[in-house]
């Protein structure tokens, strides 16, 4: 049995998403995805999950997946298994069509192949509907990692889902984001897994409230203070990356603010993420 203080050696997730992680996602890194309500945080988290569990190659066709195991912690979210399976199938179909396969060939392959099921076997979903369940979930994640050393990514959606959970009297208790993150990372730090979490921000609901895209007058350090000032994020755990999601009403698309600038994307009707820049 593995000792509690023994660290599991793992490599980086190099193919997770080149647009966001140019050099790959390193073990023990902590990434924050923040944005206002309906900015696409959950769908971006889904996209990272799919990229993690998708195969690298399928029938000599590049799928650009990591073929790794992933843990997805869902807080106050409806069942996501069907959506995950649909997104995996859509990604396979898109890759087959890009490779020149006909519709009949794609349909026949999807019906006969069990790739979707194999991908879902690499995914473990924890669901919690209260703060007490979240604490228990963090502990169970640690126990699960002891028995499954192939897990490389843990995604939490969202870290402040229980910020205002309170008793029946109506008084609300604020849950400190730093403590919420500590509960999770204390269970994962010995297993060299990367952690990605989403956080709801009440600031900068519109793109022009954050920066002027045409003039490019913003700076990434200023964005960090804007994105985190509503929760006063001062965790002792250093963030490797922070992404701020926002909407652009003029371009009718979504954007992600990174240290190198803004990158634009949209979601297709099938739910697949499409990069515009």
Q: Approximately how much beta-strand content do the residues carry?
A: 15-25%
- What's the end-to-end separation, in Å? 48 Å
Helix percentage = 25-40%
Largest sheet descriptor: 9 strands, mixed
Count of DSSP helices?
8
Derived from helix and strand composition plus strand pairing, the structural class reads alpha/beta
Quick one: overall form?
globular
Low-pLDDT parts are 1-5, 167-174, 203-237
Task: Give your account of this protein's structure.
With 277 residues, the chain is α/β, with parallel strands linked by helices. The chain is 32% helix and 22% strand. The chain is built from 8 helices and 11 strands. It has helices spanning 41-53, 81-98, 103-112, 115-121, 131-147, 177-188, 207-210, 220-228, and strands spanning 30-35, 57-58, 61-62, 69-75, 123-128, 151-157, 194-200, 241-248, 253-258, 261-267, 273-275. The protein has a 9-stranded mixed β-sheet with strand order 5-4-6-7-1-8-9-10-11, with helices on both faces. A two-stranded antiparallel sheet has the order 2-3. It is globular and about 50 Å long.
At a glance:
With 277 residues, this protein is of the alpha/beta class. The chain contains eight helices and eleven strands.
List keywords for this structure.
single chain; 277 residues; alpha/beta; 9-stranded mixed sheet; 8 helices; 11 strands; 32% helix
What's the arrangement of secondary structure elements?
Layout: E1 30-35, H1 41-53, E2 57-58, E3 61-62, E4 69-75, H2 81-98, H3 103-112, H4 115-121, E5 123-128, H5 131-147, E6 151-157, H6 177-188, E7 194-200, H7 207-210, H8 220-228, E8 241-248, E9 253-258, E10 261-267, E11 273-275
Parallel strand pairs: 1-7, 1-8, 4-5, 4-6, 6-7
Antiparallel strand pairs: 2-3, 8-9, 9-10, 10-11
Helix pairs in contact: 2-3, 2-4, 5-6
